[in-house]
Amino acid sequence: SAVISQKPSRDICQRGTSLTIQCQVDSQVTMMFWYRQQPGQSLTLIATANQGSEATYESGFVIDKFPISRPNLTFSTLTVSNMSPEDSSIYLCSVELGTGGEQYFGPGTRLTVT
Amino acid sequence: GESVGLHLPTLSVQEGDNSIINCAYSNSASDYFIWYKQESGKGPQFIIDIRSNMDKRQGQRVTVLLNKTVKHLSLQIAATQPGDSAVYFCAESSGANNLFFGTGTRLTVIP
Hints:
By secondary structure, chain A is mainly beta. Chain A has strands at about 5, 10-15, 20-25, 30-35, 45-50, 55, 70, 75-80, 90-95, 105, 110-114. Chain B has no helices and 11 strands. Chain B has strands spanning about 5, 10-15, 20-25, 30-40, 45-50, 55-60, 60-65, 70-75, 85-95, 100, 105-110.
């Protein structure tokens, strides 16, 4: 497995502002992913972030709202832009180790928008 | 998109008993499945995976069964312990690296 950290672990933000979440992994990985987990619900994939290319967004998620950076093989950021209370969720990054498809998750960032 | 769901949203078991958590999926092209455990305030923790060329795989105290005919997946936990209390998710993939998660089952172990 890998050690994956996220910053911040939680935040309370005002509507209309933006928050950038960082994800750091202790080994080089090609594929990183960002998920959203709304309160009491399952995980939904936001986008796939590969180093050196534009992130690939799932249906219902757009780059203007969730811009992603992937500057190197150990780091990625997700920005939640122009936040509204509906964006209150846990945001999780994950990494794929090897080529088998196994994904390992960070601890998550709990975002509350007031 | 894929549809992955769970039959039971909650499950309570006595400590020491075996637990069985079920999951149904709808995409017949899915070829890779993972079970995750998520404790409160933490990210999902990888438990065990299985590929579509297998129907059973065992780990430490856990067994995953895959029935492709009825598109059903189950996680069996032997001798359930209080530390097993968590929400369990199944996730499936059809080879595109994207995982689609089921709705989750909350397992409560009664001492």
